[in-house]
């Protein structure tokens, strides 16, 4: 146990502001050991001193706890903005705190705790999905609710698809589709925060989820974004800031006008350490409004564990995706890391393994993975042992292929692993950093695709990675009769569909990122019922699923369609 003379407990409030006392010499950090409300965390560091190192322990005070009247809380920006008022010792503390700023919001949590756990069904706030007619139409569907009640015997395992027989057209819906628990958590957090804070400005770090209709509904209620899903900042006026249209004194970046009383919600994808540090410095509450999905956090914890075991972390993900950015940012605190997009890029990485001791290998690596590896990454050192984690919304089979390919490359280059020594490829082939909801949606879709089908419609936002993965599975079976759409508006007629071509190889590539008109059934003669698969990505509201079904039904002769009440009655008898 450290003596009081060799330890100082720094205390932060819920807004990540440091407890300060005033002395004739200037501002000093209050000693949290004298504050009975303070909670000591496991996090600390040593500060060199003339008589030996001083142990600095980081602590926090629970919200709403009364504090000694001699203590004032200052944000890091406030303290740094008036350095002349700080004692030299406080200046040293502020400099040493910099690497730990991202940890300040979570001092009350254990390292294996999750920021925002999934709510049990009985604690879900379903009322937010029916605040008015607009939200009711977006989020609610009697058809989808009945299907989920019927088919989802188990949340984590797929079941047989559910048929909807309207007569002239027959639909097949997988047992699992639409909102996952992480998305539900984030949506409920956002709507609850807006309702509970009518007099405060509420921002979202970036898009809450990858669905434009959900995001538009939140904007309608007063939510504002600090930046786009690609990290481009917004000005106060709402325009995007770029080199041609920079921020101005009259129209500054929203980031630059944040105040401690403002609220910033972190979306389900998580946030980079850089963005979290910016919020901490400005004295905003972070943990209370952090809606990071706990399955994304599970990936971070796996990467941390691999790093502690001496592995370099290979992240299977899209480097431009918010989740992968957050995972990479979090991982680099614990291990060297590199992002590979797909098996083709994993092959490039594997090709460096036998040559990793050669000088040319470093140059090849830096050219192939520019902007996608940690600073100072050494091929000779950091490709000695690797472990793979993934963006949670990708296809599990692709992650498995990447792991097996890398394992084969090490076997060919280095021979079998030495008994008793760490494996060259860590994790024992585990792929459990993939979101189980993503996997069960894919499994359920596979079951539905085994049935006879004429077409498939996959519904989701244009920037939704998991929706694209579902469409890829459909495309393998149905080819150009598999359509990626955002809503019923994309079904132009029975002859044509506005299909979105996803930028599979990244932003700015020539093979995607645009909408094209594709034929559906231009010569439809209604000679037989059409069999259509409908599914939605993890950010697709149930209301959109029902709207697509209603749109397709409207294109068939009304006299040949069964009423929806009869279809629901069929489900009730199933």
- Into which percentage range does the β-strand content fall? 15-25%
Q: Quick one: biggest sheet?
A: 5 strands, mixed
Shape: globular
Could you report the average pLDDT, rounded to the nearest whole number?
Answer: 91
Strand count: 19
Structural class given helices, strands, pairing?
Answer: alpha/beta
Q: Main sheet: which strands, in order across?
A: 7-8-19-15-16
Please estimate the helix content.
Answer: 25-40%
From the alpha carbons, calculate the radius of gyration and give it in angstroms: 27 Å
Low-confidence stretches: none
CATH topology of the largest domain: Cobalt-precorrin-4 Transmethylase, domain 1
Distance between the termini: 66 Å
CATH architecture annotation of the largest domain: 3-Layer(aba) Sandwich
**Can you identify the CATH class of the largest domain?**
Alpha Beta
Q: Which homologous superfamily in CATH is the superfamily of the largest domain?
A: 4-hydroxy-3-methylbut-2-enyl diphosphate reductase, catalytic domain
Tally of helical segments: 17
Describe the structure.
The chain has 574 residues and is α/β, with parallel strands linked by helices. The chain has four domains: 4-106, Nucleoside Triphosphate Pyrophosphohydrolase, CATH 3.90.79.10; 135-180 and 437-573, 4-hydroxy-3-methylbut-2-enyl diphosphate reductase, catalytic domain (Cobalt-precorrin-4 Transmethylase, domain 1, 3-Layer(aba) Sandwich), CATH 3.40.1010; 181-289, 3-Layer(aba) Sandwich (Rossmann fold), CATH 3.40.50; 296-428, Cobalt-precorrin-4 Transmethylase, domain 1. Helix content is 32%, strand content 16%. The chain is built from 17 helices and 19 strands. The chain has a five-stranded mixed sheet with strand order 7-8-19-15-16, with helices on both faces. A hairpin with a 3-residue loop joins strand 7 (162-165) and strand 8. Helix 4 packs parallel to helix 17. The longest helix has 19 residues, at 396-414. The radius of gyration is 27 Å and the shape is globular. The model has no long low-confidence stretch (mean pLDDT 91).
């Amino acid at each position: 146990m450290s003596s009081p003379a060799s330890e100082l407990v720094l205390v932060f409030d819920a807004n990540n502001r440091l407890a300060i006392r005033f002395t004739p010499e200037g501002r000093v950090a209050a000693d949290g050991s004298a504050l009975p409300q303070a909670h000591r965390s496991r996090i600390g560091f040593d500060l060199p001193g003339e008589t030996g190192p001083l142990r600095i322990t980081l602590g926090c005070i629970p919200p709403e706890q009364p504090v000694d009247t001699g203590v004032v809380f200052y944000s890091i920006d406030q303290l740094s903005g008036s350095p002349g008022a700080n004692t030299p010792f406080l200046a040293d503390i502020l400099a040493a705190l910099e690497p730990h700023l991202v940890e300040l919001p979570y001092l009350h949590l254990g390292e294996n705790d999750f920021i925002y756990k999934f709510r049990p069904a009985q604690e879900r706030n379903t009322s937010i999905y029916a605040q008015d007619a607009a939200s009711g139409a977006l989020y609610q569907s009697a058809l989808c609710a009945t299907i989920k009640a019927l088919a989802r015997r188990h949340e984590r395992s797929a079941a047989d698809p559910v048929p909807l027989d309207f007569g002239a057209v027959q639909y097949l819906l997988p047992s699992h589709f639409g909102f996952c628990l992480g998305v539900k958590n984030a949506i409920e957090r956002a709507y609850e925060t807006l309702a509970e804070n009518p007099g405060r400005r509420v921002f979202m770090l970036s898009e809450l989820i990858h669905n434009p209709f959900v995001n538009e509904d939140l904007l309608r209620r007063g939510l504002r974004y600090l930046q786009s899903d690609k990290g481009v900042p917004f000005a106060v006026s709402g325009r995007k800031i770029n080199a041609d249209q920079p921020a101005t004194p009259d129209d500054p970046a929203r980031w630059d006008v944040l105040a401690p009383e403002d609220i910033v919600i972190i979306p389900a994808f998580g946030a980079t350490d850089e963005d979290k540090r910016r919020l901490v410095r400005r004295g905003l509450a972070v943990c209370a409004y952090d809606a990071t999905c706990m399955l994304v956090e599970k990936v971070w914890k796996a990467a941390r564990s691999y790093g502690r075991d001496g592995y370099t972390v290979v992240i299977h993900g899209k480097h431009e995706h918010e989740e992968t950015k957050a995972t990479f940012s979090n991982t680099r605190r614990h291990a060297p890391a590199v992002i590979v997009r797909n098996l083709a890029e994993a092959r490039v990485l594997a090709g460096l393994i036998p040559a990793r001791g050669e000088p040319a290998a470093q140059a090849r690596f830096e050219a192939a993975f520019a902007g996608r590896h940690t600073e100072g990454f050494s091929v000779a050192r950091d490709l000695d042992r690797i472990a793979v984690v993934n963006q949670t919304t990708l296809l599990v089979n692709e992650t498995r292929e990447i792991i097996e390919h890398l394992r084969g490359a090490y076997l060919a280059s280095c021979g079998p692993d030495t008994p008793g020594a760490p494996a060259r490829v860590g994790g024992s082939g585990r792929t459990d950093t993939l979101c189980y909801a993503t996997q069960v949606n894919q499994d359920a879709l596979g079951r539905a695709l085994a049935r006879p089908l004429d077409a498939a419609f996959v519904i989701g936002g244009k920037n939704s990675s998991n929706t694209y993965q579902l469409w890829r599975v459909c495309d393998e079976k149905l080819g150009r009769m598999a359509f990626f759409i955002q809503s019923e508006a994309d079904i132009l007629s029975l002859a044509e569909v506005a299909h979105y071509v996803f930028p599979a190889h990244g932003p700015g590539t020539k093979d995607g990122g645009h909408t094209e008109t594709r034929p559906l059934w231009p010569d439809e003669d209604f000679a037989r019922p059409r069999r259509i698969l409908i599914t939605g990505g993890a950010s697709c509201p149930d209301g959109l699923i029902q709207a697509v079904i209603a749109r397709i039904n409207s294109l068939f002769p009304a006299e040949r369609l069964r009423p929806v009440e009869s279809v629901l009655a069929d489900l009730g008898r199933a």
